[in-house]
């Protein structure tokens, strides 16, 4: 099982100091957070993609390429890459390039985005969100697997004898997650290709995501990729910790109360009761995260949101120390306990290359 | 046959509330008609005042807290809905609209709905026709023809019962609207309709004059 963090990349005023970081400070902070993730033993760093203030990460592979050069083990990913408004040819090229530079430590999460105007900014129609996701990904999938592509579709200019370069590292495309919070069509798409399904469950109650993940697992088996239990599931989480639970609540409350997503609505206590948010001691975080398995089954990747709502960099780095030292080692041990042997590990490039080679040998 | 589920959404803010009073009258009349037609009926009243914070939270977070989720589910599963709001600034109240806003856009499709409202004077009564009815038409609900407006004066002796349930009185309007809603659920008229075929009824003129003198 893989553990990591995902960042929205928001520039938010710290409600306790009134200070707003500059874009430059925020970008450098995201890099510092990614490097810290590797230092404390996490497996994954994922960045969002946004094309409007107050968000900075408009160019994920540029940022991830820089982080790749400064890390050794960390898997670099996205949360999410806009499959609707980006040209699938450019996604194919950018992530293949990143894959080479990072020695394969790359995967990617497809998403449709949550900012309506992004569609018109890139010349697309939001009402075509699902068809765009379906057609663009079909092309991306083909570009990574076939050298000579003839292609015609509804949304993009046709291609004749096109080869996307560079080719994926070791002829093994990056692993793909499909992220969705409400669309069964996307769960179906992930299942069809045998790709991963990431449910960013952090802002809503679990019952909603249970349905979506169960659907993905069933359809994954339907398409012959394995049993429902072998489908590749990723989940979000959102935590703020201090050794002492009351200290965590006291320190996080102003950030919660003013947070862009849920601020000025429910109380911190109500929200922690109804969603995966945990504000408390490392032990409380461990218990809440372990309960995800009871709800969703054994899964492959757990990403935590740690650096949002204006939390200063120093605080986020302290949080990552707690996550890496006190929480994740326990979660690794506990999730490994009673995990059926047939449930796959989180996807890595090395494992995918080995699987592909084994398949080739078998077919000879 | 299982009991019909009749859900009443009341957006009154006062305690006690004339909106709730009207809601109860409409629910009572509808349930009476349904029982008269041989149907069991379970009435559930959802008072939005108690859900005001939950509704605001849902608007902010995108999901309903438990009590609101329960109320939304009741509305979704209802066989028929009675929706009653006070008229504020020429329209349904903000709280009422916010509750409708957190419902799924398909939650009311095809559902029989009786709309009603309360206000200080009858001058607000057409808000039912220019605000409430289009809202429910947009949601593709099957709104019954009679909408019931109760102004403060309707609760007085002359308005509510003084005319003994004649067609134009509040009691008469409640009975007609409830009858229409019940009819949607049972598929048969609960009150005689074919008035045209009946001979005209007249009150002898001397009797009319005498009645006026008595005042």
UniProtKB/TrEMBL annotation, chain A:
Pfam families referenced in this protein's UniProt entry, alphabetically: Bac_luciferase
Residue intervals of the Luciferase-like domain: 1-297
SUPFAM superfamilies cross-referenced by the UniProt entry: Bacterial luciferase-like
GO molecular function: monooxygenase activity; oxidoreductase activity, acting on paired donors, with incorporation or reduction of molecular oxygen
Keyword Iron belongs to the record: no
Keyword list, A-Z: Monooxygenase, Oxidoreductase
Ranges where the record places region Disordered: 343-364
Comp. bias (Basic and acidic residues): 354-364
One GO CC annotation: cytosol
InterPro entries: Bact_Lucif_Oxidored (IPR050766), LLM_FMN-dep_put (IPR023934), Luciferase-like_dom (IPR011251), Luciferase-like_sf (IPR036661)
PANTHER family to which the protein is assigned, alphabetical: BLR5498 PROTEIN, LUCIFERASE-LIKE MONOOXYGENASE
Name used for this protein in its record: Oxidoreductase
Automatic annotation (TrEMBL), chain B:
NCBIfam families for the chain: LLM_duo_CE1759
Official protein name in the record: Oxidoreductase
Coiled coil: none
SUPFAM superfamilies, alphabetized: Flavoproteins
InterPro entries in the record: CE1759_FMN_reduct (IPR023932), Flavoprotein-like_sf (IPR029039), FMN_Rdtase-like_dom (IPR005025), NAD(P)H-dep_FMN_reductase (IPR051814)
GO molecular function annotations of the record: oxidoreductase activity
Domain NADPH-dependent FMN reductase-like: 5-155
Domain of life where this protein originates: Bacteria
Keywords: Flavoprotein, FMN, Oxidoreductase
Keyword Flavoprotein: yes
């Amino acid at each position: 099982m893989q553990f990591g963090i995902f960042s929205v990349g928001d520039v938010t005023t710290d409600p306790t100091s009134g200070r707003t970081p500059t874009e430059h400070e925020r970008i450098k902070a995201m890099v510092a957070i990614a490097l810290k993730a590797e230092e404390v033993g996490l497996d994954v760093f994922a960045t969002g993609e946004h094309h409007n203030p107050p968000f900075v990460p408009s160019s994920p592979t540029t940022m991830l390429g820089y982080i790749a050069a400064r890390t050794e083990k960390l898997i670099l990913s996205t949360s999410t890459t806009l499959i609707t408004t980006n040209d699938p040819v450019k996604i194919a090229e950018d992530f293949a390039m990143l894959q080479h530079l990072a020695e394969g430590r790359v995967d990617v999460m497809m998403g449709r985005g949550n900012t309506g105007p992004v569609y018109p900014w890139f010349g697309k129609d939001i009402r075509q969100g699902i068809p765009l996701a379906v057609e663009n990904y079909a092309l991306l999938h083909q570009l990574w697997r076939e050298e000579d592509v003839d292609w015609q579709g509804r949304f993009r200019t046709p291609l004749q004898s096109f080869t996307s370069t560079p080719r994926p590292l070791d002829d093994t495309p990056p692993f793909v997650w499909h992220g969705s919070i409400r669309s069964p069509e996307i769960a179906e798409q992930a299942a069809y290709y045998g790709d991963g399904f990431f449910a960013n469950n952090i802002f809503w109650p679990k019952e909603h995501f249970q349905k979506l993940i169960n659907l993905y697992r069933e359809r994954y088996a339907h398409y012959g990729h394995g049993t429902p239990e072998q489908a590749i599931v990723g989940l979000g989480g959102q935590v703020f910790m201090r050794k002492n639970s009351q200290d965590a609540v006291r320190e996080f409350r102003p950030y919660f109360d003013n947070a862009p997503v849920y601020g000025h609505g429910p109380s911190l206590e109500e929200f922690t009761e109804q969603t995966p948010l945990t504000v408390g001691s490392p032990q409380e975080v461990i218990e809440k995260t372990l309960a995800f398995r009871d709800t969703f089954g054994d899964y492959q990747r757990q990403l935590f949101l740690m650096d949002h709502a204006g939390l200063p960099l120093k605080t986020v780095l302290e949080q990552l120390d707690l996550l890496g030292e006190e929480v994740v080692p326990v979660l690794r041990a506990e999730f490994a306990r009673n995990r059926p042997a047939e449930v796959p590990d989180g996807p890595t490039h090395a494992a995918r290359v080995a699987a592909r080679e084994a398949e080739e040998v078998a077919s000879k | 046959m299982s009991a019909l589920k009749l859900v009443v959404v009341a957006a009154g803010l006062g305690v006690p509330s004339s909106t709730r009073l009207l809601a109860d009258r409409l629910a009572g009349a509808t349930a009476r008609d349904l029982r008269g037609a041989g149907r069991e009926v379970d009435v559930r009243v959802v008072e939005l005042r108690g859900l005001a914070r939950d509704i605001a939270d849902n608007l902010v977070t995108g999901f309903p807290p438990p009590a609101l989720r329960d109320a939304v589910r009741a509305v979704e599963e209802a066989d028929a809905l009675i929706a009653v709001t006070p008229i504020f600034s020429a329209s349904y109240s903000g709280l009422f609209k916010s509750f409708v806003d957190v419902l799924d856009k398909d939650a009311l499709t095809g559902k029989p709905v009786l709309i009603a409202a309360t206000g200080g004077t009858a001058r607000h009564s057409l808000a039912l026709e220019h605000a409430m009815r289009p809202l429910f038409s947009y949601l593709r609900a099957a709104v019954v023809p009679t909408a019931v407006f109760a102004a403060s004066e309707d609760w007085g002796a002359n308005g509510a019962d003084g005319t003994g349930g004649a067609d134009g009185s509040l009691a008469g309007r409640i009975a007609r609207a409830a009858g229409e809603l019940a009819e949607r659920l049972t598929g048969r008229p609960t009150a005689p309709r074919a008035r045209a075929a009946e001979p005209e009824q007249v009150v002898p003129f001397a009797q009319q004059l005498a009645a006026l003198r008595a005042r």
